[in-house]
């Protein structure tokens, strides 16, 4: 039974695709960003540390040692009898090796969503999110949508979705996470996906790869 990892720079749509696949396969969605934001909302010790980094507003990532400690605590809670879809973890080779303590490489497929930097900036800076249910609305500026269609809450722009921070996060991603792509490529479990088309087309492409 395969588990899946979604890689891709911020704004690539990896979270959206990971959630869609998890729903389709009735798998566990393990979204590191969502888990970290939930800790921040709850005001836990982990959450306070995450929020301190985000409040700096420089697009930096939470330090690896803290992420690894937090994620490992969550991994220990998982039911590995079910499929798991990972989004946002691992992001470094060291984190990949941590995951391999729980799931072997031959039980993984890695989908790398590729999108140009220009598209990433446009997507991130024009999307809005519901702070209550976390539903994302793309190009909300053009559609004029200001409230969540699910729960009616006013939409907000996330801290990390300003142009300056998005560009910084892309730089950090290129520096820290791209080596992970080569790591999984060497293991023959990496599949590249063109993330430029609309969400529905990207989903179809992923489905073809999984079923093929």
What can you see in these coordinates?
This protein is an alpha/beta fold and 212 residues long. It has a domain at 3-116 and 178-211: P-loop containing nucleotide triphosphate hydrolases (Rossmann fold). It has helices at residues 14-25, 32-42, 45-55, 64-75, 93-99, 117-126, 140-143, 163-176, 178-186, 199-211; strands at residues 3-7, 28-31, 84-87, 108-114, 128-129, 136-137, 190-194. A 5-stranded parallel β-sheet has the order 2-3-1-4-7. A two-stranded antiparallel ribbon has the order 5-6. Helix 2 packs across helix 3 (45-55) and helix 6 crosses helix 8 (163-176). It is globular, with a radius of gyration of 17 Å. It starts with a strand and ends with a helix. The mean pLDDT is 90.
What are its keywords?
212 residues; alpha/beta; Rossmann fold; 49% helix
The total of helices stands at 10
CATH class of the domain at 3-116 and 178-211: Alpha Beta
Give the name of the CATH superfamily of the domain at 3-116 and 178-211.
P-loop containing nucleotide triphosphate hydrolases
Work out the radius of gyration.
Answer: 17 Å
The overall average pLDDT, rounded, is 90
Class inferred from helices and paired strands: alpha/beta
Helix content: 40-55%
Query: Secondary-structure element order, as H and E?
Result: EHEHHHEHEHEEHHHEH
Please mark out the parts with pLDDT under 50 across 5 or more consecutive residues, or reply none: none
CATH topology of the domain at 3-116 and 178-211: Rossmann fold
Strand proportion: 5-15%
Number of strands: 7
Largest sheet, in brief, is:
5 strands, parallel
